[in-house]
Automatic annotation (TrEMBL):
Official protein name in the record: NAD-dependent epimerase/dehydratase family protein
Species of provenance: Stenomitos frigidus AS-A4
Gene3D superfamilies, per database record: NAD(P)-binding Rossmann-like Domain
UniProt-listed InterPro entries: Epimerase_deHydtase, NAD(P)-bd_dom_sf, NAD(P)-dependent_oxidoreduct
Superkingdom to which the source organism belongs: Bacteria
A Pfam family it matches: Epimerase
Domain NAD-dependent epimerase/dehydratase residues, every copy: 4-226
Signal peptide residues on this chain, from the entry's feature table: none
Amino acid sequence: MRAFVTGANGFSAAHLIQALEQRGDSVVGLVRKSSDLARLAGSKVELVYGDLCDVDTLKTAMAGVDIVFHIAAYVELGIVNAAEMTRVNVDGTRAVLAAAQAAGVPKMVYCSTIGIFGDTQGRVIDETFERTQKDFSSAYDRTKYDAQQLVDRAAAAGFHVVSVLPSGIFGADDPHFGPVVKQFLKGGLKLWAGGDRVTGIVHVDDLATAMLLAAEKGKRGERYIISAGDMTTREMFALLSKESGVPAPAETPEAIVRLVGNLLDPIGRLFNWQPPLSRERVHYVYDRCVRVDGSKARQELGWQPRSIEETIRALVR
């Protein structure tokens, strides 16, 4: 099989490419000229340099491929460039869909997010859930929701595209929680916030497996939640502490966290700086709770992820 992968140098995409190559598949990967290619060291991927919104470049690169994996996205919370996020996440998805259909690609797998469901207020939901939150918690949620609508419409019009919706993606080279774990293991993380915050967990390699299964068995227009389960932040640090022997960080009082977030937010916007806390990040810690059931992927795709405990333990190893 010959596959085309957008955002090839990214965390999830690089692990997918590794899984594809281990199967003997050939891969064409889209990256920007400014991309850090460290994650692709040792890979045989054929790189194409270009912009995600350039339909002509995409169409040319997709010639002769059997499937497109659209993974590229602008992922960030807090102080973001909302216009650029819209361009990448929404306009980029529109361009990938247009190019794939114009190039006659028979299948596409789109990497979405459970964030499209909005705040479920702690209710555990599946793929049948109809979004009830009227607004959006972040520009990221909004742009991924809008992109999902484009994908759903393409599927309804006859294009074979399947969506995978991962929860929190974890792994040794995770760019989000990974640096936190490294700081913790060095003994440098003394304080944390929001111990009751619930996070869905999936190992990045299990996500790659799910995408391959979605390509093989997924039905046109279907959505598959990819989550092995969830855990509170307090439970995660307790497990990390047990595995490493490093004491779990103390929890900062909520009132202080909210105050600091409110103070740093306008400073970050004024100086175009991403503070460790902002109003949006505080909102995600205390006010928003999305919980999901990943049974459909297990039942329909035969997906068998490792446990959430094993995923967290692996961060220490």
